[in-house]
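Propose amino acids for all 727 sites.
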């Protein structure tokens, strides 16, 4: 059925030896082992025949140019967009080497453009005004809507006019706390249109996390909705915003405008608490504004958005992306990695609260004039067949999701998939964590009927767009490998001393030179930007990920090497589906937090262990906490917390729950620890540093791999912890 496998025609050596041992102190997701590396899955001749990049040779030719002549390569692409004024002589300038001074990345500086104009007006003007821009699918099957590019432009203009009217100007921040309604991309685009900087906060973050972000970026306005229904549960978002605004007011940050969309499918306005003067119903004001709005032309290097993400210390980092380079990069990566055609219908299951929703729900696809699905609900509600129901309903051709969803649907059973046609599907995509080969194969064989290539895209909030990704028609894939670098990306695997490794190797994944979509700074903290990303391995951008490269040059991501946990889960599976997945009741209780069905969280969460630790120690009965990531069957990584209680406080189930509640309250439900392990003491070096390496081994029950514990201040702590493992 279209798939052909044979020994690689490109002179690749098939690897059979086991991967060299990884020097990285990380939780490596099991399966991607030696035998897998030899498995090559070729795109069908039909697929390659129509693909934009149809062979490895073609890719290599383009890649070579992108590295040898980045300025020429990227300006040719950039010229396809509308620029009011062209960029200056220097297409880009960069310094990624801390030894040579401040880190600086600039692309297309001096070029004057607007990303909203390029997403909407440009498509309308080139005759695509009547093309569907967004199909919206609500939480309940049967609730839906759509907007053409012309209609979307009008809606964006109305909101942009309103925002201008209430005093939002170029360079002002706007915090957006919205679920996956059409109003979320509308808001992002409206901000971009007037040069305001949007900061979308995932509408699953707690009021405290929201307040923290508001206090950091001091927005001119906050945009939210009254409530959202996720699965069967109504979440009262406006209440969360009210608490956050009260909190930030205490620190002197008062917000004058809280524009609130009335989401009638979840809650009527009469039930919503209101602060006259500050709160305004979207529906009462926005539709009154003109449907055209002049564009605020901005420099390519003017900020486009801020997105907070977790780092290895407690405070979230405001990742700042600018306009021109991000525009060119997201559009180009989208086009090539999905082999985009104008007739495609594209669905990315991520929430716009995460980078995937920024780059690959809103900007990348719309810059290409694509038809995008915005899905409000949870992929397993009302049952685990919902995704394929949506695929058939809209004839989705490109489907982009996360391994966690693949794994959980896989466990729910093939019958939920095979009862739908899925004939429209062309390319599948994966992001968020390494996709384990068995999930890859299920995705490929069952969902894609062995017909659709899988683009396993490795990238980060910081990178703006795909960095290592298959081009689906160009080369054979290896299940579990993100394959090769995108145009312009020069990955470098380095050892712990920062020495670049060649050929087959394992180490820390870095990038050698800038690419247009790179983030430019951490908002208000350029020093932290340099320290976190550029100081660990001078001369390189350090991703925080471990990686190996096999003999054929394929890249295999192995997970974070810093104290960041990638908890990737969506949910809303009813308990019946969970029992099928053979998860324990323990998992069920922790994942659901005891709701009768499981809550959803979009598809990706990056959580800093320090954030969870600081939430735990804020509990009056907790004296110390250490959090590590452990392999988790569905979520990729689970959150495992070692907790030392204050003197004399006894362990109890109640206390365990109250610790979990504290984390939920402070960060959000998705950060709740999966396991709390009572710790009379923590393994520390004599200088007081917690040895997480040992904790990771205890958490994953690899007790024979504890390594040397003699340098601990008190080695007996380890035995005590092991003794309490199952308490
Ligand atoms: C992980 C999400 C392996 C990685 C776009 C990275 C992946 C972190 C992949 C960024 C992949 C993302 N294979 N690992 N295809 N994609 N990751 O900022 O650890 O939420 O550093 O961005 O996710 O997470 P973030």
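Proposal:
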């Amino acid at each position: 059925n279209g798939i052909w496998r044979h020994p690689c025609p490109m002179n690749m050596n098939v690897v059979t030896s086991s991967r060299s041992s990884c020097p990285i102190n990380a939780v490596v997701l099991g399966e991607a082992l030696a035998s897998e590396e030899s498995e090559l899955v070729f795109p069908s001749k039909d697929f390659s025949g129509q693909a934009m990049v149809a062979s490895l040779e073609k890719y290599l030719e383009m890649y070579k140019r992108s590295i040898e002549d980045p300025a020429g390569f990227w300006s040719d692409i950039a010229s396809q967009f509308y620029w009011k004024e062209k960029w200056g002589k220097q297409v880009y300038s960069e310094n990624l080497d801390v030894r040579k001074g401040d880190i600086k990345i600039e692309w297309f500086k001096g070029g004057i453009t607007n990303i909203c104009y390029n997403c909407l007006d440009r498509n309308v003007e080139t005759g695509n005004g009547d093309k569907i821009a967004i199909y919206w699918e609500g939480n309940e099957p049967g609730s839906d809507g759509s907007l053409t590019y012309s209609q979307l432009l009008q809606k964006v203009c109305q909101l942009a006019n309103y925002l201008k009217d209430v005093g939002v100007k170029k360079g002002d921040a706007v915090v957006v706390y919205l679920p996956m309604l059409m109003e979320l991309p509308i808001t992002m685009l409206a901000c971009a249109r007037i040069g305001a900087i949007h900061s979308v906060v995932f509408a699953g973050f707690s009021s405290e996390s929201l307040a923290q972000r508001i206090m950091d970026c001091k927005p001119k306005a906050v945009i939210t909705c009254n409530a959202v229904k996720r699965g069967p549960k109504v979440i009262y978002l406006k209440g969360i915003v009210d608490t956050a605004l009260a909190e930030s007011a205490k620190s002197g940050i008062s917000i004058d405008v809280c524009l609130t969309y009335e989401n009638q499918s979840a809650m009527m306005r009469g039930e919503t608490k209101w602060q006259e003067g500050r709160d305004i119903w979207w529906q009462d004001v926005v539709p009154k504004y003109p449907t055209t709005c002049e564009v605020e032309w901005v420099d390519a290097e003017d900020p486009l958005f801020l997105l907070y993400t977790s780092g290895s210390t407690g405070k979230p980092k405001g990742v700042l992306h600018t306009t021109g380079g991000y525009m060119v990069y997201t559009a180009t990566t989208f086009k090539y990695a999905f082999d985009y055609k104008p007739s495609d219908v594209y669905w990315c299951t991520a929430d716009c609260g995460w980078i995937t929703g920024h780059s690959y729900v809103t900007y990348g696809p719309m810059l290409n004039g694509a038809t995008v699905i915005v899905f409000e609900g949870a992929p397993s509600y009302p049952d685990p067949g919902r995704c394929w129901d949506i695929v058939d309903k809209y004839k989705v051709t490109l489907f982009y999701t996360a391994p966690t969803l693949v794994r959980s649907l896989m466990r729910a059973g093939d019958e939920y998939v095979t009862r739908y046609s899925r004939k429209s599907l062309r390319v599948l995509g994966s992001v968020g964590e390494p996709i384990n080969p068995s999930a890859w194969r299920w995705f490929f064989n069952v969902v894609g009927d062995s017909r659709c290539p899988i683009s396993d895209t490795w990238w980060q909030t910081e990178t703006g767009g795909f960095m290592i990704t298959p081009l689906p028609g160009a080369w054979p894939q290896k299940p579990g490998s993100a394959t090769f670098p995108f145009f312009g990306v020069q990955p470098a695997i380095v050892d712990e001393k920062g020495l670049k490794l060649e050929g087959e190797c394992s180490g820390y994944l870095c990038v050698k030179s800038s690419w247009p979509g790179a983030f430019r700074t951490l908002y208000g903290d350029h020093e932290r930007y340099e320290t976190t990303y550029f100081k660990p391995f001078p001369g390189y951008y350090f991703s925080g990920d471990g990686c190996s490269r096999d003999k054929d040059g394929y890249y295999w991501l192995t997970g974070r090497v810093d104290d960041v946990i990638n908890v990737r889960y969506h949910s809303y599976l009813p308990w019946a589906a969970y029992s099928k997945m053979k998860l324990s009741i323990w998992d069920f209780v922790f994942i659901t937090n005891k709701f009768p069905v499981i809550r959803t969280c979009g598809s990706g969460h990056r959580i800093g262990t320090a954030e969870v630790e600081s939430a735990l120690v804020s509990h009056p009965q907790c004296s110390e906490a250490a959090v590590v990531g452990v392999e988790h069957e569905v979520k990729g990584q689970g959150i495992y917390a070692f907790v030392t209680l204050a003197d004399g406080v006894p362990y109890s189930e109640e206390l365990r729950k109250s610790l979990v509640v504290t984390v939920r309250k402070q960060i959000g439900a998705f950060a709740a620890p999966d396991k709390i392990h009572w710790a009379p003491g923590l393994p520390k070096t004599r200088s007081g540093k917690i040895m997480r390496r040992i904790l990771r081994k205890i958490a994953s029950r690899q007790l024979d791999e504890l390594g040397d514990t003699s340098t601990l201040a008190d080695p007996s702590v380890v035995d005590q912890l092991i003794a309490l493992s199952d308490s």
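Residues 309, 354-356, 430-434, 456-461, 482, 543-545, 557, 559-560, 566, 604, 606 surround WTA (CB under 6 Å). Confidence is low (pLDDT under 50) at residues 1-35, 570-603.
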